[in-house]
Amino acid sequence: MTPKLGRLLLVAAVLSHATGCGSSSDGGPTATGGSAGAGGGAGASGGAAGAASGGAAGGGGSAGTLAGGTGGGSAVLFRDDFDAPNPAWQFDAGDPEATYSVKGGVLEVKGGFLQAFAFLPIDPSWGDDVEVRTSFRLVTGMVGGAVVRADTASLNAVNCNLREDLDQLRGAQHVDRTYMTLGDKSTPVANGTSYEISARIIGSTLTCTEVGGPTLDIPNVSFASGAVGLFVYQGTVEFDWYEVRKPTP
User: Fold this and answer.
1) CA distances (Å), origin 220, targets 52, 93, 119, 175, 205
2) Residue pair 139/235 in contact by the 8 Å Cβ criterion
3) How far is CA 198 from CA 161, 183, 195, 204, in A?
4) DSSP-H helix ranges across the chain
5) CA angle 225-226-230, nearest 5°?
6) How far is CA 15 from the centre of its chain?
7) CA distance linking residue 88 with residue 188, whole number of Å
8) Residue 233, phi-psi category: left (phi > 0), alpha (psi -120 to 50), beta (remainder)
9) Helix or strand or coil: residue 9?
10) Is residue 88 within 8 Å of 41, Cβ to Cβ?
11) What's the per-residue H, E or C state across 161-198?
């Protein structure tokens, strides 16, 4: 029996395939990281300098590009290269196994059964239609992904993720921290390999894309606004960089 198959059988014993990462809990308190002020937190190094109305430079923050920043194609609203801690991020503490650390140019997130979430509040000037792009590696475990339209108190959100034990790109919904799969596409996913994914939300349609892999469109998303972010389930994931862009219709 392969290690991947063994983990799949273990997970199947407690979760149904329909819910994937399903578990329920309250949203939990918000851990260190604080909330972003108007204009969001701008990092000190990397990224192109953007004009941010009201945006303050986070002490020691890593690369951040706010509204007005440069970028090819769709405009870059925010970028973090995780060169140093950025106080704009909010780290959820609802999963007692969750840990978050910035080191060596990566954000390392460990999540357990209740899932680990890192949130970035939306600047009102960005609007509700955004695209999140991120590059990451599943060091151990099963799931890493990007979150959009998140209510950070209730843990209602939608996300695009890669699931290692099922070899899938997935679009999913969190309601009160309970995870439900909305759609999936087959794609190879392996621990230790770097992947880039995009979560693009325009109106009520979520588009999940693995760069160099499949794309998945999910219509009729019920959440109209909210924060963006990252999430990890049952494993450790290293995020190399994170961008928020204004999508081109």
Assistant:
1) 32, 30, 23, 15, 6
2) yes
3) 9, 15, 10, 16
4) 3-12
5) 135
6) 22
7) 33
8) beta
9) helix
10) yes
11) EEECCCCEEEEEEEECCEEEEEEEEECCCCCCCEEEEE
CA quadruple 20, 172, 244, 185: dihedral positive or negative?
A: positive
> How many other β-carbons are positioned within 10 Å of the β-carbon of residue 98?
22
* CA atoms of 100 and 80, how far apart (whole Å): 15
pLDDT tens digits, 80-114:
999 999 999 999 999 999 999 999 999 999 999 99
The number of beta carbons lying within 10 Å of the beta carbon of residue 16 is 9
Q: Which two tokens stand for residue 224?
A: 């109209």
Nearest to 242 by CA among 155, 120, 124, 98: 120
Place of tokens 């997970």: 11
CA–CA dist 118, 129 (Å, integer): 19
CA distance 172 to 148: 11
CB-CB contact of 149 with 160 (8 Å): no
Q: pLDDT tens for residues 57-69?
A: 333 344 443 333 3
User: Do the Cβ atoms of 221 and 205 come closer than 8 Å?
Assistant: yes
What is the pTM (predicted TM-score) of this model? 0.74
Q: What's the Cα-to-Cα distance from 56 to each of 7, 84, 138, 228, 229, rounded to whole Å?
A: 45, 16, 32, 19, 20
